[in-house]
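Run log // design_07
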């Protein structure tokens, strides 16, 4: 029944690769789109009855060819890539397709979420070990993938805040964060004061993932369309070793599956990011394979 509902609501899935590794220091996540495709994302979704439109990858400069941008944390190139992701999201919505953005580091969400909210607002479920809520003033590393959510709320580099269209793309009430367990000191204070609903791993440990995700969905009830931004480091590194910024104590495989299954039940899924897979650090493509399993559950695959 769940699968039948998904097929009626969504005819075509558009896969959009964004092989960017400019938003962070660890090399290798630019190979993430290839790893996810190799793990069978398109074939598994097709088995659920969806038509698949793989539009290939947006153009991303190789880091070694833009050395002059290093002192700027590659901001000019990141802006161009996020502009392309924004347009790809907007075009997918206009074609009545549901986009899956496969990264690449989490800076891609600046474009993907922005484009998804171009015509009407969208609610965002941000699954991540980290807050991604730094600004140039609070960051320790300077890495832009740690600023993505703050930028979407209008805080940070103007060049990235204004990707696609001027100003913030989200309000705090439009965002729920799940799985958070590592924050920079000033980032923690900013997040506390932001108004964003944040569910840390302690919340999940004490209350259970089922209670947490149902409550989270209730907080986003004012938005009919949901964008899921899945950073694979939200899961425990014992489950997904192929990520660049591992933090112990994350979501288990079954917790992540249940989270996706409950979201699927709502029929409100509009788009998905899968980010931060680093095949160099992985074991036999395990992390990409698990990402695919989570994606097909999100799109309606059920046990019965």
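design_07 sequence
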């Amino acid at each position: 029944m769940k699968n039948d509902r998904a097929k009626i609501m969504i005819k075509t899935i558009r896969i959009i690769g964004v092989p960017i590794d400019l938003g962070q220091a660890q090399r290798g996540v630019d190979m993430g789109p290839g790893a996810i495709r190799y793990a069978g994302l398109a074939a598994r979704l097709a088995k659920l009855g969806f038509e698949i439109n793989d539009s290939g990858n947006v153009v991303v400069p190789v880091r070694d060819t833009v050395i002059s941008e290093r002192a700027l944390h590659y901001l000019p190139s990141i802006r161009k890539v996020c502009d392309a992701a924004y347009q790809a999201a907007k075009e997918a919505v206009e074609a009545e397709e549901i986009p899956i953005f496969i990264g690449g580091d989490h800076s891609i969400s600046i474009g993907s979420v922005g484009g998804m909210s171009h015509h009407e607002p969208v609610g965002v479920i941000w699954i991540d070990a980290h807050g991604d809520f730094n600004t140039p003033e609070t960051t320790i590393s300077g890495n832009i993938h740690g600023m993505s959510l703050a930028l979407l709320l209008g805080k940070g580099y103007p060049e990235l805040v204004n990707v696609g269209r001027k100003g913030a793309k989200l309000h705090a009430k439009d965002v729920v964060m799940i799985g958070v367990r590592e924050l920079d000191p000033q980032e923690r204070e900013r997040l506390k004061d932001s108004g964003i609903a944040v569910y840390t791993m302690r919340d999940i440990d004490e209350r259970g993932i089922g209670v947490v995700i149902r409550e989270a969905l209730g907080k986003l009830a004012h938005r009919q369309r949901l964008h899921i931004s899945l950073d694979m480091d939200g899961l425990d590194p014992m489950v997904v070793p192929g990520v660049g910024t591992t933090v112990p104590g994350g979501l288990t495989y079954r917790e992540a599956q249940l989270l996706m299954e409950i979201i699927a039940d709502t029929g409100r899924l509009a788009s998905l990011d899968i980010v931060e897979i680093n095949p160099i650090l992985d074991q036999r493509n395990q992390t990409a394979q698990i990402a695919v399993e989570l994606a097909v559950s999100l799109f309606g695959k059920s046990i019965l």
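DSSP finds twelve helices and eight strands in the chain.
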